């Protein structure tokens, strides 16, 4: 009997999940509340009436992960058409091409908002939804896959005195461009990618630009010695080298390129203890005085500025921008389905009770996709997650009983406690390669040294050795997870891996042939 699945959201994780479900022969319906696919990468201006927006993209957004690690494994990004790092328009274009190539759009209901999801007597899911604000309708599905992301509900800290501030306070979620801030005095609260981007955009326009951070943090440039930052973080350095040596080598490399961080930014945690900010000019902007950093928390917001916990005050501010992240929130399902009430990592409203940050122990047909926070590209992870989930739904992967899953979740939380600093954003953090490898191992798709080495004794040993070298010493691309196991596509995977290793500036002929001969019908020029 055909499995009927409901997918909520048509962003990166929703599209990857839909594509995988269709490959499995499932009946697929994707619910997308907006009038286009793309999720956060579908840029929009805030509503002029309400000031609200669904997308967090600002006009100058540049991806934090490079093209060669961010493409899907069976639809690589063509370097002849996409730059190393790309903006929201290019990302949306790629997602449209992906959806067209795999025939996904006919399964997507646009302008359709999911109102509620409830389990019925046979444990299936009754989905209530409305299209274009019409009367709600209901349909029952065998499984529910939530792909609506974690960047929809801005986290607004309850700072003392917020209501007294005479200027403007707003979250980075609705920031769009630096115009309008000329000659202003602005303070940015928080330290992550959004804070780094916005501070660096504004500092050329403002009279004063302040960056307030409690912990500081590591800042990685997009390029080191002309190579993408991702080229320096290979499988060998992440999985073969001892962690202490890997941390030391990466820290030394960053300090060699950028020098030591200013005292206000220098974190107490090591370089792998928190997600770093990715920016190529933030450090320079601070060192030349365009941005003034402050190492402190916010004690109070006054009528004209900020009072900080280190005793400093910032006065005569025109605007305060909150780069304070997002709250995990899925309003259409019960919080009991995914929230953690007794996390062993930390007591946080953002703690989740999900095995592999995906499935609750007591519900076997509900999956929360893409909720994780990775210091790396999301595409390979959500793609593997989708393959893992569909293998569960078809019975190829058997999950242990609920009690055992809860024990495994507790172990995962304890591991996060050892690896990450305690903060709300790290309740769903995982290191990229170990997380992806854990899913790939269950699928029989892990590119282990033994498997790769054994290919040297086949008909093409030189090619096999080249692939082995590229997988362990090259970029950690999604293609490495298509060489073996459940859902493998070895011809395309090998071609992509070798092309990336050679630094070619367009898709190889081997890739084009593999894409053209794929079962899915392409509607775009390859």
Automatic annotation (TrEMBL):
Organism phylogeny: Eukaryota, Fungi, Dikarya, Ascomycota, Pezizomycotina
Keyword Lyase found = no
Q: Which GO terms describe its molecular function?
A: flavin adenine dinucleotide binding; N,N-dimethylaniline monooxygenase activity; NADP binding; trimethylamine monooxygenase activity
Q: What does this protein do?
A: Broad spectrum monooxygenase that catalyzes the oxygenation of a wide variety of nitrogen- and sulfur-containing compounds including xenobiotics. Catalyzes the S-oxygenation of hypotaurine to produce taurine, an organic osmolyte involved in cell volume regulation as well as a variety of cytoprotective and developmental processes.
Give TM segment ranges.
none
> So what family is this one in?
Belongs to the FMO family.
Gene3D superfamilies on file: FAD/NAD(P)-binding domain
- What's the catalysed reaction? hypotaurine + NADPH + O2 + H(+) = taurine + NADP(+) + H2O; hypotaurine + NADH + O2 + H(+) = taurine + NAD(+) + H2O; trimethylamine + NADPH + O2 = trimethylamine N-oxide + NADP(+) + H2O; N,N-dimethylaniline + NADPH + O2 + H(+) = N,N-dimethylaniline N-oxide + NADP(+) + H2O
Source domain of life is Eukaryota
Which InterPro entries does this UniProt record tie to the protein?
FAD/NAD-bd_sf (IPR036188), Flavin_mOase (IPR000960), Flavin_mOase-like (IPR020946), FMO-like (IPR050346)
The answer to keyword Oxidoreductase applying to this record is: yes
Task: Name the chain's protein.
Answer: Flavin-containing monooxygenase 1
